[in-house]
Design goal:
23 helices, 7-stranded mixed beta sheet, 675 residues, globular, alpha/beta, 6-stranded mixed beta barrel
Length: 675
């Protein structure tokens, strides 16, 4: 809800009755007016006039911009190089990502990538164990025992306001919340029980809990005996390899605590286990997500009230297939530059963490052009410096950014999108929501500047290129396209701002699984995947880098495609940022052994880089572990954010998960010394 005075928006509030926030709004949402009227907005199409990153631009018209992009892409296509054009979008679902994918298909490039998150890993988990294409939804409102493996439930995981409300409801209903992580986060502090764990060993703990559930006959016998496959072999592996004594030595959690958790979980009426560290921006390892999912399966809380729900993938943004000409067919037949969908990673649709290496280590072909929309990978991708070098190597880069961010600074052309308060756009189901839902942003003000909806730009670009490409985009405008796609939902969305499938009922156990066996599969024979614990070897050796550095999320720090507006950055605690100095959290015992006084400067080093920090003694972090916030260290042209703190992504590199290909790194080895 946006309050207006004349033509000016003056206040943003949550929409009452909305299933995600019901009238609430997070601090970033409250400050949305500063994003609308902010100083970092790109106000018109810009063309680079100096070296990349220098910030020298000249204004051009939309006609000039579209002509230049169409000409460049046309030249590559005419030279049988259409497959060398890549695209990165921020979202996987919705009409805008679908338009980009359609454009790249008829143009002739398989290289469409999206910003990764825990949702990608959870979707793979359901594909392997359920055999369905679905998103993982969590009926948290009705759960009475929440076992969180590091999920920052009130740090931004899923939908922040939904989690705030759920946390309050748990207090009223008497539900118990157990937070497992190595740092006393806000979520841990507000939970009923915080259980510190050795970082990176969450999968082992899940398997240890499974051991107790099996050994003490605490499993749901109906589900396990009648609706699962591969249980006998998996059960033997769990009982042989994950006794509480062994898991205790791995995780640092007392064996009796492990036993107690398992008994409490099984004794609850609607227990729910979930994973996804921090706000869920890191995909994590597939085995870990599967291990946690088996804990839910053992108690039969699959597609049940208060449990994990397989929510159908939003598939309304689909159009009739169009014929591909010879250039498109040839380009689409090429292997992807990130390796997604290959024999090595058959389940992956996108592997942005492998893109930079694919650009730098040219094997099959170079990347000659890159389109980026609703994403800031030069800032938000692990090993950000390497990603920046990869972008610098690409001859032609086009950004559709609304704001001057780090990726836009490296572009040759910026074709600015309207901001969300100026445009129509569909927003499919929020992460973790347990019912199919579509929201829609609506313009509350006319566009303030010479910007265009990115959907209109794609449609216009297709028209400029003509032929089979133009034929695939018959709409006069993005709004016309959106109205056609949404069909009968259009009027509902315009009136209410959202559409939810109130009739949705999760499939019963007999119909829920589409695996080869038709059952939930603990061990999938066709994919050779078994949920287990295989330690992830973090980058760096312990002798040189004796500490473990891990990031943490804060509701007051945006760490995705945009940076904090001024209103939000002023609310950041002084134990996180003072002036331009970022603080690293260190256990007092660790700090004492290193001779590091509270508040004093220090040098933080990892295999990827080093940074100047200040030390914050914090009893809520395990010895030998240090923590640093995500969302600082911006370098783009922003007088409120530039040069403040350190970008954690410049200190860590991706660690490829062998099963999924996604980035499984939760931290990096580090060294901390006096400055």
């Amino acid at each position: 809800m946006v309050r207006m005075v004349g033509d000016r928006a003056v206040k943003i509030e949550g929409l009452e009755g909305h299933p995600v926030n019901d009238g609430g709004v997070c601090v970033l949402g409250l400050s949305g007016l500063q994003l609308l009227y902010g100083h970092t907005r790109v106000k018109r199409p810009l063309k680079r006039s100096g070296k990349r990153g220098e910030g020298h631009w000249k204004t051009i018209s939309w006609e000039e911009a579209l002509t230049e992009v169409a000409k460049k892409l046309g030249q590559l296509r005419d030279g049988n190089q259409s497959h060398t054009v890549a695209c990165i979008t921020g979202n996987k679902y919705g009409t805008v990502p679908a338009l980009f994918k359609r454009f790249k298909t008829v143009y002739g490039s398989p290289n469409v990538m999206t910003t990764p998150s825990i949702s990608d890993t959870l979707e793979m988990t359901l594909r392997v164990m359920h055999g369905v294409e679905a998103q993982a939804g969590y009926d948290i409102e009705n759960a009475d025992y929440i076992l969180s493996f590091g999920s920052g439930l009130i740090e931004g995981w899923g939908s922040p306001v939904r989690m705030f409300r759920a946390n309050s409801a748990w207090r009223d209903s008497g539900a118990k919340v157990v937070q497992i992580e190595s740092r006393l986060s806000n979520t841990a502090a507000k939970s009923d029980q915080w259980i510190p764990i050795n970082p990176g060993t969450e999968a082992a703990l899940a398997m240890g809990i499974a051991h107790v559930l099996i050994k003490e006959f605490l499993v749901n016998s109906d589900f396990v005996e009648n609706y699962t496959e591969g249980y006998a072999g998996w059960k033997k592996m769990v009982l042989d390899d994950y006794a509480p004594e062994k898991v205790a030595s791995i995780t640092g959690i007392d064996k009796m605590v492990i036993v107690k958790i398992a008994r409490e979980f099984a004794g609850a009426e609607k227990p729910l286990a979930l994973c996804g560290r921090g706000n869920g921006e890191t995909p994590g390892g597939l085995a870990e997500a599967m291990a946690v999912h088996t804990v839910n399966a053992l108690v039969g809380n699959i597609n049940q009230e208060g449990g994990v729900i397989a929510v159908p993938i939003p598939e309304y943004a689909e159009w009739p297939e169009t014929g591909l000409d010879s250039a498109a067919q040839s380009g689409m037949a090429k292997a992807r530059v990130d390796g997604a969908g290959s024999d090595a990673f058959p389940m992956a649709a996108s592997l942005l963490n492998r893109f930079a290496a694919g650009v730098m280590d040219v094997k099959d072909y170079p990347v000659n052009a890159l389109l980026v929309s609703d994403a800031n990978p030069v800032y938000s991708t692990p090993d950000a410096r390497a990603f920046k070098k990869a972008v610098e190597k690409i001859p032609f880069v086009v950004s559709f950014a609304s704001y001057m961010d780090e990726t836009a600074m490296q572009a040759d052309l910026i074709l600015p999108n309207h901001v969300y308060l100026e445009r129509y756009e569909d927003i499919p189901v929020a992460a973790g929501l347990h019912k199919p839902m579509v929201g829609m942003t609506q313009p509350v003000v006319f566009p303030l500047h010479d910007t265009r909806h990115v959907g209109d730009v794609i449609i216009g670009l297709a028209g400029a290129m003509g032929g089979s490409i133009g034929e695939a985009f018959p709409w006069e405008s993005y709004e016309a396209c959106l109205e056609e796609v949404l069909g009968e939902k259009w009027d509902i969305l315009n009136e209410d701002g959202l559409w939810q499938d109130e009739a949705f009922q999760p499939a019963g156990w007999g119909e829920a699984f589409e695996t080869a066996s038709g059952k939930f599969e603990f061990m999938n024979p066709t994919m050779d995947l078994t949920p287990s614990f295989v330690p992830l070897s973090l980058e760096g050796n312990a002798a040189t880098f004796p500490l473990l550095l891990m990031p943490y999320d804060s509701m007051r720090l945006a760490s995705g495609s945009i940076s904090d507006p001024p209103f939000v950055i002023k609310a950041v605690e002084d134990t996180i940022l003072q002036g331009k100095d970022i603080f690293v959290e260190v256990n007092p015992a660790t700090a004492k052994s290193l001779g590091l006084a509270d508040g004093k400067p220090a040098k933080l080093s990892t295999p990827k880089g080093e940074a100047r920090v200040r030390v914050h003694h914090y009893d809520g972090i395990m010895p030998g572990v240090v923590a640093i916030p995500r969302g600082l260290g911006h370098t783009a042209d922003d007088r409120y954010m530039a040069g403040k703190g350190v970008n954690f992504n410049e200190l860590i590199g991706p660690m490829e998960d062998s099963a999924s290909g996604l980035d499984a790194a939760w931290g990096v080895r580090a060294k901390l010394a006096k400055a």
